[in-house]
Amino acid sequence: AVVSTQSGHYGRGVSRWILTRVAEEFNVVISFDPKPIEGDWNGAGCHTNISTAGMRIPGGLQLIHEAMEKFTKKHKEHIQAYDPHGGEDNKRRLTGAHETASIDQFSYGVADRGAS
Questions:
Q1: Residues 13, 106, 36, CA angle at the centre, nearest 5°?
Q2: pLDDT at 9
């Protein structure tokens, strides 16, 4: 099933709310800032693995490449939707240094820690 940016954004919001409420029970403070401490380091990102049944069978690699091409076309929209400040927070993290990709370009790969 295809998850739209809006429904994915809603699910992320609900997940964050649940995590925050559980953390309150244990006197823990949660930060969703991608780089909560300034400095020369890579920050904290969201690594997501996505697959469909078709991607996990022989010949599925083609479906993966097709999905990545679709992500490429929506990169800027996804960066803005993922970040509560329209991408501004992630600009501090996605610099292209320290195994991070540039915020301006979508990339993908196998075992590529610098891919976006």
A1: 50
A2: 60
**Does 94 score more than 80 pLDDT?**
yes
Residue 88, H or E segment: helix 88-91
- 33: Cβ contacts below 8 Å, ≥ 6 apart: 89
CA distance 59 to 75: 25
Has this prediction a pTM greater than 0.90?
no
Neighbours of 63 (CB within 10 A): 16
Phi, psi of 27 (to 5 degrees): 55, 45
Residue of 34, 39, 41, 37 whose CA lies nearest to 99: 41
Amino acid at 8: G
CA distance readout (Å), 73 to 56, 70, 101: 23, 5, 16
Cα–Cα nearest to 48, from 71, 25, 73, 19: 71
pLDDT tens digits, one per residue of 6-63: 555 667 788 889 999 999 999 999 888 888 888 888 888 767 777 899 999 999 999 9
